[in-house]
Amino acid sequence: MQVIATAGHVDHGKSALVTALTGMQPDRWEEERRRGLTIDLGFAWTTLPGGRTVAVVDVPGHERFVGNMLAGVGSVPAALIVVAADDGWSAQTAEHVAVLDALGVAHGLLVVTKSDLADPAPVLADVRERLAATSLAGIPGVAASSRTGDGVPAVAAALDEVLAGLPAPDPAAPVRLWVDRAFTIRGAGTVVTGTLAAGTVTAGDRLSLGGQDVVVRGLQSLGAPVERAGATARVALNLRGVAVEDLSRGDALLTPGAFRETAEADVVLTRTVDKLPAELVVHIGSATVAARVRPLDGAAVRLRLAAPLPLRVGDRLLLRDPGSRTVHGADVRDVDPPELRRRGAARARAADLAAGGGAAADLARRRVVPLADFTAMGWPVPAGATTVGRWLLAPGLADELAARVPAVVARYRQLRPLEPGPPTAVLRSALDLPDADLVAGLVRPPLALRDGRVVSADGGLPEPVQRAVTEVLARLAADPFAAPDAEQLAAAGLGPRELAAAVRDGQLVRVAEGVVLAPGVEERARRALAGLPQPFTLSQARQAWGTSRRVAVPLAEWLDARGVTVRLGDATRRLR
Ligand SMILES: Nc1nc2c(ncn2[C@@H]2O[C@H](COP(=O)(O)OP(=O)(O)OP(=O)(O)O)[C@@H](O)[C@H]2O)c(=O)[nH]1
Ligand SMILES: [Mg+2]
């Protein structure tokens, strides 16, 4: 399916042409039919002779209803521009074309209607000339009469060709469905309609509406139920989880997590303007939000929205001054712009925006950002960027930060030689990172992450401590259960802090306060006990180990605690 919107001055025959093409009457309201005047958006569809299905969003031409016109064309990739042969280019022809031009609509068909009333040739020539300076330059033009049917088949054929040339939307893109109508249907509940410009909606989908979850119970397209609809399409969604009173035109149904609401955006106007008003109205999709305008420099402008919108980088906005009715096109370049405090910051910002450095430049400025946030802004992940957990790091930044880690570790160890290395929180603050989890991605050999600290993989105790520990280990190698006593430890300079450091470093095993043995003691102790009759007494164990009660008592309890031995009721033990 393709979707096209009408455009043109009041009474020039838009709705009549839609009826001639589709056989459907787009004016839905009794008042519209009675007055012969379109007020709100109308919808009709048909299958063209070439086999292509087209849905038409019919807009009002009257100047009072331009707001409805804007909502109708906001998500539509092509326009059907209607000019009456007996009236020619008129005020709302100009206004509508200016809107389409600002939105960058580049596909369309010009139809000069009422060819039964006047010669269409001069109007065709005049309008084509006026379109030449707009995004619609060069679109084909056809003359027709909806009254006599003359030229209508030619309109259908030309339309088919225009639609064939439309770019294919991405069916896997996230969904942002701008609501153009919301109503209830007896028995079904809340229904919204809109033009799906990208992505796919399937029954059962969960979508986000102003931060709230809603479920698509079912959907229809062109009046018939469907299991799924892929862009471009007109869709009607039956929603669970929201009352019709909580919905209105301009709301957006979003793929959860794929968009972020923003009240501030930096944009670049498609054309430089001498002076912008301080307040403008922003239009995107079917939404309309007032905005304060801060010109930065040249065509770059900062917008402060009166209400947040789910904007993405690359969105085209329509900025409109309701007083003068002038419109401007603007491309969203940043949906999370930096504060501008320093003198000259606005000018520098404008230069950056104008340069349009894309995802790489934006990420370089942010340095570190949650990956989900960055993609929700509308950026692709630039080449060379690295991810650490949920974070995205600018190209080169991980290496740059990793290179600074050894110095931080060395300095920390100098100040606290008995600690194995700094906790990740110390590196987080030293490297000015938003999250200590990032440190894991910045530690390179011979450093390693252990128990929440950055340590050297080759161990490392201060020189004198290492020497004393090595001596203790040498003695334990000869006599594995002869734990040094307090006096011996003190003589070697091994106080509680030094012992703790050696234990943390894996060089000694702490069996009890002041009782340290060599690594592997558990297996050695078990093997000695295996030679005893089971169960055995503490005294038998002590003899098997060849040690004193000072060591044997805590060692036996330590083995109990580790599940090597089981203590029985009569104070004897056996191996488990
Ligand atoms: N003679 C003649 N009359 C036409 C033709 N097309 C439309 N009309 C008449 O022109 C009047 C306006 O037509 P509409 O189709 O309602 O015009 P519109 O552009 O939809 O008007 P709005 O939606 O109000 O902007 C109606 O009375 C139509 O019958 C045509 O090709 N020939
Ligand atoms: Mg109409």
TrEMBL record:
Location of the protein in the cell: Cytoplasm
Domain Tr-type G residue range list: 1-170
GO cellular component terms, A-Z: cytoplasm
Pfam families (UniProt xref): Beta-barrel_SelB, GTP_EFTU, GTP_EFTU_D2, WHD_3rd_SelB
Sorted UniProt keywords: Cytoplasm, Elongation factor, GTP-binding, Nucleotide-binding, Protein biosynthesis
Record's function text: Translation factor necessary for the incorporation of selenocysteine into proteins. It probably replaces EF-Tu for the insertion of selenocysteine directed by the UGA codon. SelB binds GTP and GDP.
Keyword Membrane appears in the UniProt entry: no
Coiled-coil spans in chain: none
The protein, known as: Selenocysteine-specific elongation factor
Gene Ontology MF terms in the entry: GTP binding; GTPase activity; RNA binding; translation elongation factor activity
Keyword presence, Plastid: no
Any one of the GO BP annotations: selenocysteine incorporation
SUPFAM superfamilies registered for this protein in UniProt: EF-Tu/eEF-1alpha/eIF2-gamma C-terminal domain, P-loop containing nucleoside triphosphate hydrolases, Translation proteins
